[in-house]
Each structure stands twice: as structure tokens, then as C-alpha cells.
TrEMBL record:
Entry membrane topology: Multi-pass membrane protein
Keyword Flavoprotein included in the entry's annotation: no
Name this protein carries in UniProt: Antiholin-like protein LrgB
A Gene Ontology cellular-component term: membrane
Residue ranges of the TM segments: 12-33, 40-61, 81-98, 107-129, 165-186, 222-243
Disulfide bond listed as a keyword: no
Location of the protein in the cell: Membrane
Taxonomic lineage of the native organism: Bacteria, Bacillati, Bacillota, Bacilli, Lactobacillales
Keywords for the protein's UniProt record, in alphabetical order: Membrane, Transmembrane, Transmembrane helix
InterPro entries the UniProt entry points to: CidB/LrgB (IPR007300)
A Pfam short name: LrgB
Main localization, broad class: membrane
Length: 250
């Protein structure tokens, strides 16, 4: 190990660096989103991801070390702590599900069938497009779980031979696009029913889509939260089976 690498581990290889960097880029994204009056490319999660990657790359070049090495030894100790909070945050989506269990009880079959059918359609589309653009099995496996929220999609991606970091980026990009196009898509497909709006935004846009659904109505927001929970369970069961069936997992 070189003297530079030893210095980096000594001064930056503690959880403080990764935690502070994550918080700072996210807070900057929130500020940018506010002054940009909600411009979709300034969505805090997206800004934090892009800016964080750029800062890590820039710092690695400044220190003259490999980017992957710098990420693993300088950022990851704190980044893993931030990532841990994704799990309880995802579980918290069960709260609105509980509060609006009256809707779930009335339409449970329609909700479940629509999410399962929609997932299967999306899996075949993702698989077909991935093959069309020449992705290998690793790339396809990284794309398949993106219907689930990031905390669920990343472990599934790793389990079927994908790259969790690529899956996380796909999930975030999906969320940003859905947030940006939500109003237009609702008008295009004439989605006037709050239940349908919420299920669509929660499934495609995850937490960011749920935030958009809450802006539309309380029912849409509750349905989006329900979609995030249910689709994550369905993805956890269906995607590994689909990957095995298509020969992606060796």
C-alpha cells in the first residue's frame, strides 16, 4: 500500500466522511430543487447521486488513486451506514398501507393482479430492450429488479448476477423521469382514478413517485405507498424465477 493510500484511509476512511458527503450533496440538491421551483432534473436524490459520483471521481484523481479503491476505502464505511437506513425507511411505507387498509380490503384482488401483470410485462420489455442494445447477462440482471424500490432492488440484483450500483442508478433515473412526466402520462392515459394514479406512480417512481402521488390526493399517495410495498414483495419472488427461466443466472 502506498503512502497516499495509507493517508486516505487514516483521514478519510472513517464513517464521518461518507455520511457527511451523502448529507451535503443531498442538502445541496434540496436547495437546488427549491430555487429551481421543482425542476425535475434538480430532484434531490438525482442531484445527490450525480454530484456524489463526480466528487468521488474528482477526489480519486486528485489523490492519484483508483476510483473503485477510493470509493471502497474512503466513502463506503459511512455510505453503508446511510444505506442501512433505506431498510427501515422502506418498511415505513407499511404505515399508509395500514391507514388505508379499507381500500386494500375492497380492491385487493385488482391491486394485486394489476401489479403482477404489469411487472411481468415490464420484465419482458426490459429483457427485450436489453438484448436489443447488446447488454450481457450481468447488464440484464442489473436492469430486471428496477421495478422495486432501491433498498429491495439492489440485493436482488446481486443475487441474480447483476451489479447493485447499476441497479440503484436505474431505480433513481426511473424515479426522476416518472416525477417529471407524471402529469403528462396521467393525461395521456386518462388516469382519472386516484387508485390507478397511485399504483402507477408508486410502482414506476418508488419513493419519488409516491411524493408526486401525495401531491395529487391522499388516496393516490396511500396507493403509491401500497404499490411500493407490494411490488417489492412481488419482485423479490418473481425476478429471480424469471432470471432463472431466461437463463440469466448460471
Amino acid at each position: 500500500m502506498s503512502a497516499t493510500q495509507t493517508t486516505i484511509i487514516t483521514y478519510l476512511g472513517t464513517p464521518i466522511f461518507g455520511i457527511c458527503l451523502s448529507l451535503l450533496v443531498f442538502l445541496f440538491g434540496q436547495w437546488l430543487f427549491k430555487i429551481g421551483k421543482g425542476f425535475f432534473l434538480f430532484q434531490p436524490l438525482f442531484v445527490g447521486m450525480v454530484l456524489g459520483i463526480f466528487i468521488l471521481w474528482l477526489m480519486a484523481k486528485m489523490f492519484g488513486v483508483d476510483v473503485t479503491w477510493f470509493y471502497t476505502n474512503a466513502y463506503k464505511p459511512g455510505g453503508d451506514i446511510i444505506f442501512w437506513f433505506l431498510n427501515p425507511a422502506t418498511i415505513a411505507f407499511a404505515v399508509p398501507l395500514y391507514k388505508r387498509n379499507d381500500i386494500v380490503k375492497r380492491f385487493w384482488l385488482e391491486i394485486l393482479l394489476s401489479l403482477i401483470i404489469g411487472l411481468f410485462i415490464s420484465l419482458f420489455i426490459i429483457y427485450g430492450v436489453s438484448k436489443l442494445i447488446g447488454l450481457d447477462n450481468n447488464g440484464i440482471a442489473s436492469m430486471l429488479p428496477q421495478a422495486a424500490t432501491t433498498a429491495i432492488a439492489m440485493p436482488i440484483s446481486g443475487a441474480i448476477g447483476g451489479t447493485p450500483a447499476i441497479t440503484a442508478m436505474a431505480c433513481i433515473l426511473n424515479a426522476v423521469l416518472i416525477y417529471a412526466l407524471a402529469t403528462w402520462l396521467i393525461k395521456l392515459f386518462h388516469l382519472t382514478e386516484p387508485i390507478g394514479q397511485g399504483l402507477g406512480l408508486g410502482t414506476a417512481g418508488h419513493t419519488v413517485g409516491s411524493a408526486k402521488a401525495i401531491q395529487l390526493s391522499s388516496v393516490s399517495g396511500a396507493m403509491a405507498a401500497i404499490a411500493v410495498v407490494i411490488i417489492s414483495i412481488v419482485v423479490d419472488i418473481v425476478v429471480p424465477t424469471f432470471a432463472n427461466f431466461m437463463g440469466i443466472v448460471k
